[in-house]
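Colleagues,

For the teaching module next term, I've prepared a clean inverse folding example: a structure given as tokens, and then the sequence designed for it. I'd like students to try predicting residues themselves before seeing the answer, so please don't circulate the second half yet.
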């Protein structure tokens, strides 16, 4: 299980595609395991009035409970509202937090916390202003080329 990427480069540019491979367990024979982040959530770009989607994939058995938080120092639970929609598909481990009608007050760190009786793990990413997001994207692409 994991995230896989294909990057193609030629004289006209760069194209990349990412995909998630999920391995399903047989619930009858599954062994207990603490939560694990299969793919981490990634930063999103803040566009006034726009939309952001933070996503990650989790594993663990028993299936983890999932909760989203906003903030780095003064973390608070993200409520499920018209603007903030939380998604969790237990069989695939997909977790998402969708934020609509973005505004400057939304620029912050968002964290997905997964927990079960065997442990707890988190994956965090930021909603970034345009310049900061572009800088992150350049670094991410440079790291992809080195791999």
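(Answer key — instructors only)
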């Amino acid at each position: 299980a994991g995230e896989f990427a294909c990057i193609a480069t030629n004289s006209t540019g760069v194209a990349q595609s990412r995909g998630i491979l999920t391995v399903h367990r047989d619930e009858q024979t599954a062994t207990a395991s603490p939560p694990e982040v299969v793919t981490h959530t990634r930063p999103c770009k803040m566009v006034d009035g726009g939309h952001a989607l933070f996503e990650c994939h989790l594993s663990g058995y028993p299936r983890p409970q999932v909760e989203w938080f906003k903030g780095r120092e003064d973390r608070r639970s993200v409520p499920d509202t018209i603007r903030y929609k939380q998604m969790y598909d237990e069989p695939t481990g997909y977790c998402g937090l969708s934020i609509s009608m973005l505004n400057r007050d939304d620029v912050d760190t968002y964290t997905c916390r997964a927990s079960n009786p065997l442990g707890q793990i988190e994956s965090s990413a930021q909603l970034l202003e345009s310049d900061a997001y572009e800088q992150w994207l350049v670094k991410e692409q440079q790291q992809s080329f080195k791999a």
